[in-house]
Every structure is written in C-alpha cells, then in structure tokens.
Amino acid sequence: MQKICLFAGIRVPLHENFDAMAGYLVDDARKVTTHRLIEMKQQGKKIAMLTAYDYTMARIVDGAGMDIILVGDSASNVMAGSFTTLPVTLDQMIYHAKAVVRGTQRALVVCDMPFGSYQVNPTEGVTNAIRIMKETHCDALKLEGGVEIIDTVRKILDAGIPVCGHLGLTPQSINKFGTYAVRAREEAEAEKLISDAHALEEAGCFAIVLEKIPAALTQRVCKELRIPVIGIGGGPADGQVLVIHDMLGMNQGFSPKFLRRYADLYTVMTDAIGRYITDVKSCDFPSADESY
Fold first, then answer.
1. Are residues 127 and 8 in the same domain?
2. Which residues form the domain of 16?
3. Which of 39, 144, 202, 211 is catalytic?
4. Together in a domain, 23 and 112
5. N or C: which terminus of the chain carries fewer CB neighbours within 10 A?
6. Over pLDDT 90: what percentage of the chain?
C-alpha cells in the first residue's frame, strides 16, 4: 500500500524510501474514528495521542499523522499559567476545542470536560456535554473518574456522544489526593481501578486513559479490556499521550520520569527571539529587501 504523508490536510504520496521517516507517515489517510481505534487495538497497532489547544498547533500535529488530538484541560496549566487544571472553564475549553477542530482533518479530536461541568449530576453533565459537541464539532469527550460518575457517563453515551474514560492519577481530583505521586500502588486501589475500567468499558466508553500508575497494572488492564488503553506515565499500553508543550521542550521546569523530550524549543525560540531583538535594535531589520 502506498504511503501517504498528511501535511496541513494535503495528501502527498511518498516514495517507499521514506519509510525511515515512519513517524511522519500513515498508511490510511481516512478520518480516525472510535471504531477504527478499537480495530487498531485488535490488530496490534499502537495509538499516538498528543494535546493541542489552538489552530496552528493542531494543523502541525494533525499533519504529522497523529491518531488522536486531545484538547486537554491541561490548557489551564500550559496556556493560562494556572497551577492545576481546576480553574479552566467550560467556555474556555469550548474556545480551545473550536480552534483545534478547525485545524484538524484526520485525527480524532477529544475534548476534556472541565472540572465542575459533569460532577454535579447526570443531567447537568449531559447538558454541558451536548453544548461542547454542538459548539466545537469535536469527535468525543473525556471524563475523569470511575463508578462515581458512571451514571453521567451512561447518560452522555445515551445522548450519542462518544466518551473516553480517565483513571489513575486524575488531575481534577488533585486536592483530594494531595500529591501527584504514582497512584494504585496498593492492592485495594489497584483492584478498584480495574473494577472502574471494566465498568467504563461496559458502559460503552471507546477508550480509557491511565495516568501515572505501575506499568504492571497498565498491562493487566490492557489485557482484560477490549477497548484501547492510552498510557501516560503508566508504561507500555495500547497507545500513549503526552502534553505537547512538555514533549517539545517548551517547559523547562516540568521533568517527570515518564516524559521524553523530542525537542528543545525553549532554547530554539529564545535564541530566535533574542536574534530578532538584536536585529531590530541594531537597525539590521528590516533591510532594504524587506521594505516596500
């Protein structure tokens, strides 16, 4: 099958010699759906997931061949500078998701439901879920929690909205946990996580994110569930997700064990901006060629 590179939504056939750049290639340029993700697990194909919060970044991430783009409530941290994910509002998440959807053609776009938008009761959760879907045109939603929110998950699914679960370290509950340490090390919490994962699958979730739990527990959940398990700080799984600002090295102060940096954009950008300042102050920019 001919390899296709998607760049800014343009399908570009590539020669077989480009296989060395497999990270940029996809062998199926069709829109990614929840059904295709389950097929990928069945076929043993790994799922790549990354966050994005704006149009320009979404075009780049989608063009690189990403399977899932998460409009994460981590926007509260990396876009707004908040210490936790709790302050981000429903309106803000809708704003970010709208921009990402406009910049995406292939990837499945999943939007986080922010803290307070679904925990009160199932009716309010469904109302907010429908609003996100109608206003953003995203493909699915992600909710944190297990049996405690299962009625809300079922109601959202009954409304025809795909749901991705999130277990383990759930950042919206950070004030309850009191720490970002690895979760489910103890047997009781591990067994509850497994029970919650099965409950979410039985309710109809198409995937589950497992954050910062022991790798052995992640492997057990992967084997027991039919739906894909996406890991972040949980070792190998059916797929992986990272925050784009972290993996591109735009943040200097965040260095958890599970993070692999694929670039050092903090240094690259600081250098570029510094050279621009120098050129402006020295009257080197703009030159005659850059003037009308």
1. no
2. 1-30
3. 211
4. no
5. C
6. 87
267 shares a domain with 148: no
pLDDT at 25: 61
Strand pairing class (108-112; 239-242) = unpaired
The full DSSP string for 45-63 is --EEEEE--SHHHHHHHHH
CB 47 within 8 A of CB 230: yes
CA nearest neighbour of 117 among 167, 156, 147, 81: 156
Q: Quick one: pLDDT at residue 27? A: 72
In this structure, what CATH number is given to the domain that contains residue 241? 3.20.20.60
Per-residue model confidence as pLDDT tens digits over 169-201? 999 999 999 999 999 999 999 999 999 999 999
* 112 within some domain: yes
pTM: 0.91
* Catalytic (active site) residue 211: yes
What are 1's two structure tokens? Answer: 């099958």
